[in-house]
Amino acid sequence: MEQFFQQLLNGLAVGGIYALIALGYTMVYGVMKLINFAHGDIFTIGAYLGLTLLVSCNIAAVLPPTAAVLVIFLMVALLAALVGYLLERVAYRPLRNAGRLSAVVSALGASIFLQNGVMLIYGARFYVYPDFLRPDFTVHLLGLAVPGVRLLIIFASVVLMVALSAFIQRTRTGAAIRAVAVDPGAAQLMGINVDRIISLVFLIGPGLGGAAGLMVGIYYGQIDFTMGWSYGLKALTAAILGGIGNIPGAMLGGLMLGIIEALAAGYVSMAWKDAIAFLVLIFILIIRPTGILGERTAEKL
């Protein structure tokens, strides 16, 4: 039983990170019906920006560790959001009326450009996050000694997901995002600035992805320029698992994927955890092709 709860907490921490990345995929798809293949690379940029702010800007030497993490967290989210905004203006907006295939090719090209840009700037080797950023306390929960960093990752992920859900469901801007997702033409006739809403989506999604990149750096302590591919693929899987275009579905899919991987690693083998996770995805999609909560449609909005 102890092993089960230990793996469950591991899965919630990793699943929270998957969910944050998956939210970027599902928001862009919900509004533009486009898979933003460059989103995983913005996640990578967030991880490297966090390391740069720590080492080159030496923020941790000026502020206490907790305050430094909070400041870096906000700065990484803002900078990653800016990268996402520029990506939309350069790679997607000029092709908005050119058909989906052109936008997909542009997304793939942007992904290759960003990944190789990170490699050229930072090099192809692994980088290690400073150890002092990791909380060294443990919390005794259900008879287990749980590392504090794991609980903080879970807490931060849940707070961000709840905040985004409340923003989408309870604000006028969130209502505008939902309206554009249903029918951009009708939303524009009602006075909604569609271009501004799409830009906002490309600010929010990459901002969450960049924050997730920082979390991975703190949690695992090691990053590399190819990490966006694997995490992006799993986050996209999580979005499809929950129901692409469905924000609660992306959250649920990310948490489920993390838990499935953790249980597979604990009870079967680390070598098989990805295969088992994707087998579960295939099984669920055979039973329910639109995902667990279904794709977001006009009736559900």
Short structural summary:
The chain is built from twelve helices and four strands, in the order αααααβββααααβααα. The chain has 301 residues and is mainly α. It has one domain: ABC transporter involved in vitamin B12 uptake, BtuC (Orthogonal Bundle), CATH 1.10.3470.
Distance between the termini: 41 Å
Q: CATH topology, which one?
A: ABC transporter involved in vitamin B12 uptake, BtuC
Strand order of the largest sheet: 1-4
Major sheet characteristics: 2 strands, antiparallel
Order of helices and strands: HHHHHEEEHHHHEHHH
Low-confidence stretches: 297-301
Secondary structure elements and pairings:
Layout: H1 2-32, H2 39-55, H3 59-62, H4 65-92, H5 100-122, E1 127-128, E2 138-141, E3 144-147, H6 148-170, H7 172-182, H8 184-189, H9 194-220, E4 222-223, H10 227-242, H11 247-267, H12 273-287
Antiparallel strand pairs: 1-4, 2-3
Helix pairs in contact: 1-6, 1-9, 1-10, 1-11, 2-4, 2-5, 2-9, 2-10, 4-9, 6-7, 6-9, 7-9, 10-11, 11-12
Give a structural overview.
- With 301 residues, the protein is mainly alpha-helical.
- It has one domain: ABC transporter involved in vitamin B12 uptake, BtuC, CATH 1.10.3470.
- It contains 12 helices and 4 strands.
- The strands form 2 sheets. The chain has a two-stranded antiparallel sheet.
- A hairpin with a 2-residue loop joins strand 2 and strand 3.
- Helix 2 crosses helix 9 and helix 6 crosses helix 7.
- The radius of gyration is 19 Å and the shape is globular.
- It starts with a helix and ends in a 14-residue tail after the last helix.
- The C terminus is likely disordered.
